[in-house]
Amino acid sequence: MAGNTFGQAFKLTTFGESHGIAIGGIIDGCPAGIKIDFAAVQRDLDRRKPGQSKIVTQRKESDTVEFLSGIFEGVTTGTPIGFQIVNENQKSKDYSHIADSYRPSHADKTYTDKYGTRDYRGGGRSSARETACRVVAGAVAKQMLSSIQFHAYTSSVGDLKMDKPYQELDFAEIENNAVRCADSAFAKACEEKILQVRKAGDTIGGVVSCVIQNVPPSLGEPVFDKLHADLGKAMLSINAVKGFEYGSGFAGSAMLGSEHNDLYNADGSTKTNYSGGIQGGISNGMDIYFSVAFKPVATIMQSQSTIDKDGNATEMQGKGRHDPCVVPRAVPIVEAMAALVLADHFLRNKTSKV
Amino acid sequence: MAGNTFGQAFKLTTFGESHGIAIGGIIDGCPAGIKIDFAAVQRDLDRRKPGQSKIVTQRKESDTVEFLSGIFEGVTTGTPIGFQIVNENQKSKDYSHIADSYRPSHADKTYTDKYGTRDYRGGGRSSARETACRVVAGAVAKQMLSSIQFHAYTSSVGDLKMDKPYQELDFAEIENNAVRCADSAFAKACEEKILQVRKAGDTIGGVVSCVIQNVPPSLGEPVFDKLHADLGKAMLSINAVKGFEYGSGFAGSAMLGSEHNDLYNADGSTKTNYSGGIQGGISNGMDIYFSVAFKPVATIMQSQSTIDKDGNATEMQGKGRHDPCVVPRAVPIVEAMAALVLADHFLRNKTSKV
Amino acid sequence: MAGNTFGQAFKLTTFGESHGIAIGGIIDGCPAGIKIDFAAVQRDLDRRKPGQSKIVTQRKESDTVEFLSGIFEGVTTGTPIGFQIVNENQKSKDYSHIADSYRPSHADKTYTDKYGTRDYRGGGRSSARETACRVVAGAVAKQMLSSIQFHAYTSSVGDLKMDKPYQELDFAEIENNAVRCADSAFAKACEEKILQVRKAGDTIGGVVSCVIQNVPPSLGEPVFDKLHADLGKAMLSINAVKGFEYGSGFAGSAMLGSEHNDLYNADGSTKTNYSGGIQGGISNGMDIYFSVAFKPVATIMQSQSTIDKDGNATEMQGKGRHDPCVVPRAVPIVEAMAALVLADHFLRNKTSKV
Amino acid sequence: MAGNTFGQAFKLTTFGESHGIAIGGIIDGCPAGIKIDFAAVQRDLDRRKPGQSKIVTQRKESDTVEFLSGIFEGVTTGTPIGFQIVNENQKSKDYSHIADSYRPSHADKTYTDKYGTRDYRGGGRSSARETACRVVAGAVAKQMLSSIQFHAYTSSVGDLKMDKPYQELDFAEIENNAVRCADSAFAKACEEKILQVRKAGDTIGGVVSCVIQNVPPSLGEPVFDKLHADLGKAMLSINAVKGFEYGSGFAGSAMLGSEHNDLYNADGSTKTNYSGGIQGGISNGMDIYFSVAFKPVATIMQSQSTIDKDGNATEMQGKGRHDPCVVPRAVPIVEAMAALVLADHFLRNKTSKV
C-alpha cells in the first residue's frame, strides 16, 4: 500500500520522477464553482523553482503547469483536476556515478532495499522535485480558502535565529528578499551565511515558520486527525524535514500550567495564544502558527566516502547545481501543504453537524 | 468525516467518553496467527492508569481490558479484535461547574462550537482517557512486532533536561522510578520538581523521548506516508502534545551538510545516525529515535478567570484529582503509538514488491 | 488489509463472532444533533432476530443492543457511537462435528485457507449473526435521513415470483406477514412453500426488493462511487447474496433505447423510471428501486458428503435450528444497508460545491 | 468527498473529460519488479477504441497511452504510474444543442444539479471515454497477475441470449468476431441484430459475462470487502450497467439448498460451482464467473422530447457517431475492472497472516 495521496476530502495524488517525462497529480474532491486564477498558481510555482536567485540552485527549469481536466471555462466543475509539469532536460545526463553507489543521507539505499530497484536519475521519486506538484495543489486550495491568509517565512538559517514574535514581523517583506525572511536585516545576515556556506562547498539547515490568519473555527477531527496532527504530518512529509512544533512548541514543555493556559476574552478569543489557534485538535479562530526544521541538503560539493551496492568503499562528490540551503525554496512548499491541510479539514467539517 | 481511526493496514478505531459506559476500540487488520499474551497487554495499561504513584493523579480506576472478538483459543484469527474498558464511577459526580463554562486551554469551547453540543462530564471525548484504548492496541501491535524493542522515557520535566545521548542510558531503569526516566539521578530531580509544582497547585510540561531498536529496513511509504511523518502524526494526536522531532531534529537545522551526512560502513549501516534510522521516509535498519513535547496539564488547582457559554466572565478552579505532569503516564502512550505506526507500515510494506 | 469497515463519511466498523462474547461496532462520522429513538433501533433488530415466526429459525436470542458512547442525553454528539450486543448461550455447545470438517458451500474452508485458523463455533465471523450490527447502524442512519422512506420486502421465494410493479403494492402490508411480502396473497403462497421445504429438511432461496422514496437529488460520487455501485456492493456484502440489479436491471438489457429512455416532465421528474432514480451514478429525486438475489441457506437437515481438513471424505448433517429461507429475516438487513449507503452519500455530497 | 479512486492496495485514480485536453490516471501501489509489455497495454486499449468495426461507433480516435512515471527501463519501480491519453479533436465542435438542454437518460441534469455546472461537451466527465483509463490500469494489473486468465465475452444482445454453459465455449473465438462472443454462430446473430437496430436509429442493451481462471485461493476480505462485493461494485461503476450476478446468480435464488450446495472433492475442489469460485467472500480456487447487464445506449438517432435547464419543453436528436450497442466495446472494460479487483485483493491478502 503505497502512500502517494494526501488528504481525505480534498485529496492530492502525485506522480513523477525528477528525470522522467513529467511530474503531475490529480486533485480529487475540489468542490465545483471555484474560479481559478491560473497566474496565481504559476506564481507560487515560480517561487519554488530553481534559478530564481543567487542563493539557490542555478539549474534552469521553467516548471510550467498544464491543467488537463476538472476546470471548464475557468471554473472548477467538481470533477478531478489533473495537471502535469513536463520535465525539461530529462535525458542524456551522466548519472553513472550514482547508478551503483549510494549517496550519504539520501534515499538511494533505502529505495533500493525496499523496491529492489530505483530510478537513480537525479534522485528519481525521492527528489524534492515532487514538491512542485504540492505547490500546484496548494495554490488551488488557497483559492478555495480565499479568506484565509498563509504566511510562511524563513525564521532561521544555521545558528542564526530570528527572535522576534511573529506579531512584530512584516509579512509584506517576505518576497522582497531571496531568503524569504519577514525581516530585511535578518534576511541580509542569512543571505551572507548561505553564500559563505556555498563557497565552502557545503550546505546548511534552517527553519521555516508559518502563520495562518483568519482561520474559521471548527476545523480538525478528533481524536487522530487533529488539525495540528495533520499539519505535522504534512510538514514532516516534505523532503529534509526533521521536526515540527506548533503554538508554544518545545518551549511550552518547560512552562507551568498557570503561565501556559490561554484565558478567554468575553468574545471567546483568548488573551494569549500558546495553544497556537488549536484546542483539542480543533481550530478556535485564533492565529495558527508553527515551525518546521529542515536539515542541511545532503548533496555537498566535497568528496565523501560511501559504498556501492556491493558494499565496496568508494568516493563520491556532488555534481551539478544544488541548493546550499533548502529553506528559501521550502517556504512556498510549507505554505502549500498548510493550505492542503486546511482545505481538507474545511471540507471534512461540513459533515460534523446535521 | 470524523477521525477516530488510525492506520491503514493495522487499523485502530476507538470510541468512548471519559464518563460514558465504556471506552473501547476495534483493531482491524491484525494478521492471524499471533499468540496474545493478555497479561502483557494489561501490564501496559497499568503503566498508564491513574493512581500508580505519588506524582500522578490519585484517582483509582482499575482499567481492565476485555477482549470481545478476534482471538480464539489465545491466537488472533485475522478477524477484527473488539475490546472495551468499562468506566467505573461513571455517574453521579457533580459537573455543573463545567457544564456551561469553558475551561481555559481545554477543548470545551471548540467541541461546543464544532458540534453544537458536548458531553461535558470530565472532558468527554476530549479526555486523555481515550488513550487507554491506544495502549491496548499498541500492546497487540508490539506482540506482532516481537523482535522490535520500543523504549520510551521521560527526557525532560519543565526546564530540567537530560543531556546524555540515549546510547548512555539504561533502559532497564525506566520502570524503576515513578517519572519513567532512564537515569535514576535525573529521575529523582524530576520527581522533586513535580511534587513542588503540585504543591503550588500548578502543573508543568515535559518531553518524552523514544528509541526503537531492531527495526527492519524498508518500512515507510513515500511520498506522503513517510515513516517519520506517520510517527509525527501519531505523536501529535496524543493529548497535550506540542511538538515532534526525530533524528537530529531542530538541532539538525543548525548543522552543516558535511557534519550531518551519515557516512556508510561496508555493511550498509552508518557511522553516525543523524537521520534517526529513516532516509527518504523509509527505515534503514538503524535505531529510530524521536522526542515529543508535552504542554503543562491545563487543569490547575488555582482559580482562573474564564467565560461561560454566553460570554459572561466567571471564575473556575480545577476540582478532583489531576496529574501535575503528564509525562510519566504518557510514556506508555508514546510507545503504543510508535508500535501502531510500525505495525501499520510493517504490513503495508508487504505489498511493495511482487 | 482487512475489510470490516463500510462507508467513508458515515462509517460502520463491526466486530464479533457468532459465539464469542459479544458482537458490536463503531459508527464514526454520524453528525451531532440527531435525537436517537432507541426503541426504533431495537424494533429493527427484533425484525432480524431468530425465533420471531414459524418460518424462521427457532433459536431464541434476545439481541439487545447497548449503546456505549457518542450519544449524550439522547442526542448524538458527533463522536463515535460504540455499541454491542452480548451473545447469549455462547458457550458449551458441541461443535466437534464442524471443528475439523468443512460444511459444503459455507466459508469454513476458505477462512481456514486464508487465515490458517478459524473460530469454528457456529460459523464464527462468517456467520450472518454479524448483520445484526448492520441493522443497528442502519437504524441510526435512517434516523439521520428521517425524510427518506425505505421499503424492503420479499419479492420471490424459490420459483414463486411477484409480478406486480411496486407501485401497486401496499408497503403497509410488509410487517403483517411472516414472509415480509407487500402483498398478502403472495405472502401466503410463499409461507406455504417455505414450510414445505423445511419439512423436507431442505432450504430455498429468494429475492428481496427495495424501494427508497423521497431521496434528495445529487447523492452519488462519480466515477467509481456511483450511488448504485455502492448500493450494489452493500447488498453483495450481505451473506448469501448472489446478484443485484436496479432500475430496469437485467430485463433492461433486452430493451431498445427508444423504449428505455426516461423522458422528462417540465418539473424535471421523468415520465418513466427505468433509470431507477439514478442517472450517471447520481440520484435524480425519483424512486430508487432494486432487487437482491439470495441463494438457499447452505445448512440443510439432510446428510451431505464432505471432507475434513485432511481431505478425507466424511458425512455431515446440519444440527441445531436454522432458517429454511433467509429472505424474511434479510428484509431489515437490506433496508439497513440501503440506509448506510444513503447516509454516507448524503454526507459526502455536502462537499461537492463551495 | 469525490469518488475517482478505485482500490485500496492497487489504487487507480482517473481524471479527464471526453473533450478536455487529456484523460489519464495514476496507478498507486503497483509493486516494483513487474516487466511491462507496453504493446499488450495498447492492444487492450485498441479493443475498446471507437471505429474498430462496423457495429460500433465510427468515430476515429487513436487512443494512444503515454506512461509518464513509475516505470524505469521497462520495469515498475514501486512508485506511482502516471499515464495519459491525449484527446484528439477536442475542440471546435458544435455542442450548443446540449449546452442548455438535458439529454434523456444521460447524466446531464444530475451533474448540473449536483455541481451547479457541467462540462457539456460530449458528456464531459460522465462520458464512457473515462473507461479508457480503466483499460490501461487493468492491463497493468493483468501483467501483475500473469498466471490468471480473464475471459469476458458478450453473452446476450437484446433478447438473444446464449444458453451454453461457459465450459462449452471457445474463448479463443472471442476476438474473431466484432461482437466479442465466444461462439461464432451466436456472434453472427448478434451482429445482424445490432445492424438492424442501428438502421432504425435505435440502440439495444446486452449482457457481458466473464470467467476468471486460475485464481489463487484466499482473495477477498470479509465482511464488507468480499471479493464478489468488490467485483459487483467495479462492474456497476461502468457506464450503463444495471445489474450484476455471480455464480448461480438470480437463478440460484430459485434453487433448493440440496441442489445448490457445492460438494467437495478430496482435493478441496468442488463437484459443482454454484458458488462461482467464492465462498464467504473469499476465492476458493475454482473458476470465478459473473454476468453484467448493460442498458441500451441513451443517445439514439431519433427525435425525443426533453427539457432545457429552465424546464421548457424542447426536441432533441442524437448527433455524431454513437454505438448502437455498448457490449462489444464493454468486453475489455469488464475484463479490466475484474483485473483491478483481483490485483487489489491479491495485494491485500498479503497481510492476512504473519
Describe this structure in words.
4 copies of one chain form a homotetramer. Chain A has one domain: Chorismate synthase AroC (Chorismate synthase, AroC fold). In chain A, a hairpin with a 2-residue loop joins strand 8 (149-157) and strand 9. In chain A, the strands form 5 sheets. A 5-stranded antiparallel β-sheet of chain A has the order 1-2-3-7-4, with helices on one face. In chain A, strands 9-8-10-14-11 form a 5-stranded antiparallel β-sheet. In chain A, strands 5-6 form a two-stranded antiparallel ribbon. Chain A is an alpha+beta fold and 354 residues long. In chain A, helix 1 (38-48) crosses helix 9 and helix 4 packs across helix 9 (327-349). Chain A has helices at residues 38-48, 96-99, 108-115, 131-144, 184-199, 227-236, 249-252, 257-260, 327-349; strands at residues 5-6, 11-15, 22-28, 65-67, 71-72, 75-76, 81-86, 149-157, 160-161, 206-213, 241-246, 278-279, 282-283, 288-294, 303-307, 313-317. Chains in contact: A-B, A-C, A-D, B-C, B-D, C-D. Chains A and D meet through strand 2, strand 3 and strand 7 of A and strand 2, strand 3 and strand 7 of D. Strand 11 (241-246) of chain C pairs antiparallel with strand 11 (241-246) of chain D, so a sheet runs across the interface.
